[in-house]
Design goal:
The structure is a homodimer. Chain A is an alpha/beta fold. In chain A, helix 1 crosses helix 9. An eight-stranded mixed sheet of chain A has the order 2-9-8-7-6-3-4-5, with helices on both faces. Chains A and B meet through helix 1, helix 2, helix 3, helix 4 and helix 8 of A and helix 1, helix 2, helix 3, helix 4 and helix 8 of B.
Chain lengths: 388, 388
């Protein structure tokens, strides 16, 4: 028998030191895992005796799931894009879809462009594919597309541009409508793809976001990545790609999708039932409400505790506050002071290899309940007073 | 609302023309999907209220699953390798694990070596990573390691060698013990990794196979890929990597594993219960028995219907018969005659880009019940009589 006496292995990805309120993790709190809904969907699957859920699935994904998902997305006020099942492809989550897209659309040494700052792990995924990753500046309307245009005019030829158009990670801002159109025009003109990470699209608070990037995609240049991790349950490892049929065909005919079949057959049968039973819509509505309240609490706490000593824009959706401290402040140095005071976050420079975001930090409000969020911000403010 | 009037999308990967017994697919028959077992494992998960199953999982995989899997493998007579949970990594199936290994261990243009013939989809996956794929000859003892040695001595420097050591796809043969040792010695000497696709290891018939490649791995050069697709249910998209801790750490610290967490958290919690409840062992035993019987039926039918006009070795395990026809016979041309007679298979040249296997074909016995297997072989024989 093996020696099991070594330290036991962790169950979850989150890794938080005891006593710390870690506002760095964009994971849902345990209270928000819809275990009863997944049980109801499972009961449906078993009562119907759906043995197909255990077989190799169609490469594009389980057909009835793609049809239910198309209906769901088409009916979402925050998506605003009529979606046909033929334009959808089942993934094992947005990251898996992006990883496969790297394999299929780029090769070692190719140039790709990302927002500066951007989702910190995606840069590493691109580098694991030996891609040459460069940044494009952003402001309160998202990627500065004129900066991208200048780069293209100066000769840069990216294989794709990775962008988080709605409620961006880490800044929380959304790409304006004009820029969406201009970005797609540039993709058409220069022949690159837009990898649109739209996992926050449905998590809006008071106002509807702009439609999904696919709504503006007249030239079949957009590959949109969606995920059930943000609207149902990360542990199911299920998401989708929404793109023109010719692009979906490229994913569907990939050797990887043929080898194992659809990327999560059992998970997608479960989610099909969750959609058909109205559970996904109910959960998405619930998350919007809960996160909206938590975001409000975080905003009120920031105002109360830090006042005008920092700058930020309250997000209209998504998971994040992006906080700017005064010139010269270093959020990496500040981190250990904060952890001594029982609070943590992600320093700004985690989100860009440019090193330009030393005085920024990112807070999230998804993992903790409201009182802990308020307490976490209070600890952050008290650390700031000691530190500065 | 979207237009759903287009043709409906398929649910499964298999795509068989009406009236044809397609002996080309190595998928389990519907009768073998253990839906009741998965229901029992699900009931356990829900009765325990395991909300962690819906959260982002640990990058290496859900700890309790890795511990149960280590116990299961250590207890399998056909594995013969004491396995520690620290040496295991959760994948979304063997193909996903191999795809990630390509990303982490090779870059565009790198040389990799495979058996000739080999699993036909894996070559395509390697080519999707822009790898330079070359073949090494095989015989009844598997890869001819002296051929590999000659290639290395002549200057070839592969990043990895992909091998299916036990009950190989498509030939059904197993790598001998001497060659296992010699292959690992070469890996150590020339600094390449051995990607050992061991998905058939536990599906033996009368005699135990040689131990897993890890048992011979004194120099931490073996990365073994296992899968629940072959012993439980392909639709769960769950498998594992077994390798030295230093290699497991490389997978665990990959950006992709960090981005989405463990590759199938919900599936692995289910399988942990299937293991602990004894259901995986029961199912593996059942599959061995059923496939052994089907293999015997196929062998008897081949003998009765085709006699000495073809050559093959009855497999000791796995999924495949590899049939050699007389010199000059072309199994690609023969295919349409067979399909006219209501039977299909995979032509030999599907398994190698060398074009050397024109007179071979591969049959499988996993998807059909015994009477259909006998009928399929009878149709093949009758087609052969017409054709030759």
């Amino acid at each position: 028998m093996p020696d099991l006496s070594d330290k036991s292995l962790p169950s979850l990805l989150v890794d938080i030191k005891p006593g710390i309120i870690d506002l760095g993790w964009g994971h849902p709190s345990p209270y928000l895992h819809p275990l009863d809904d997944i049980k109801e969907a499972s009961n449906k699957l078993f009562s119907l005796g759906e043995r197909d859920s255990l077989q190799y699935g169609a490469s594009q994904g389980y057909g009835p799931f793609l049809e239910s998902l198309a209906r769901f997305l088409s009916g979402q006020a925050a998506y605003q894009t009529v979606t046909r099942p033929q334009e959808l492809f089942l993934t094992a989550g947005a990251s898996q879809g992006l990883d496969l897209a790297c394999t299929l659309f780029a090769k070692s040494g190719d140039l790709v462009l990302v927002e500066e700052p951007t989702y910190f792990v995606i840069e590493k995924i691109f580098r694991e594919h030996n891609l040459d990753v460069r940044g494009v500046s952003t402001d309160e309307d998202g990627m500065i597309v004129s900066d991208l245009r200048a780069k293209l005019e100066s000769g840069m030829r990216p294989k794709f541009v990775y962008v988080i158009p709605t409620f961006q990670n880490p800044t929380g801002v959304s790409l304006s409508e004009n820029r969406r159109r201009e970005l797609i025009d540039l993709a058409d003109e220069y022949g690159f793809y837009i990898f649109a990470d739209e996992v926050y699209q449905l998590i809006y608070f008071d106002e509807l976001p702009l439609p999904s990037m696919r709504e503006f995609d007249g030239c079949n240049r957009v590959i949109s990545f969606g995920s059930f991790s943000k609207i149902l349950a990360p542990g199911l490892r299920t998401g989708w790609i929404h793109a023109a049929e010719e692009i979906v065909d490229k994913f569907t005919s990939s050797a990887l999708a043929f080898s194992g079949g659809g990327f999560n057959q059992f998970g997608s049968v479960l989610i099909k039932h969750a959609i058909d039973l109205g559970l996904l819509e109910k959960n998405t509505d619930l998350l919007r409400k809960v996160y909206s309240n938590r975001s409000r609490v975080m905003g009120e706490s920031l105002l109360k505790e830090l006042g005008s000593s920092v700058e930020y824009t309250s997000p209209n959706g998504g998971f994040y506050y992006w906080i700017q401290f005064p010139e010269g402040f270093n959020t990496e140095e500040f981190l250990s002071e904060c952890e001594d005071q029982g609070v943590s976050y992600r320093p700004g420079n985690a989100f860009s290899e440019s090193g330009k975001f030393e005085r920024y930090l990112r807070l999230t409000f998804t993992l903790y309940e409201e009182p802990e969020i308020a307490e976490g911000v209070a600890r952050l403010a008290s650390s700031y007073k000691r530190f500065s």
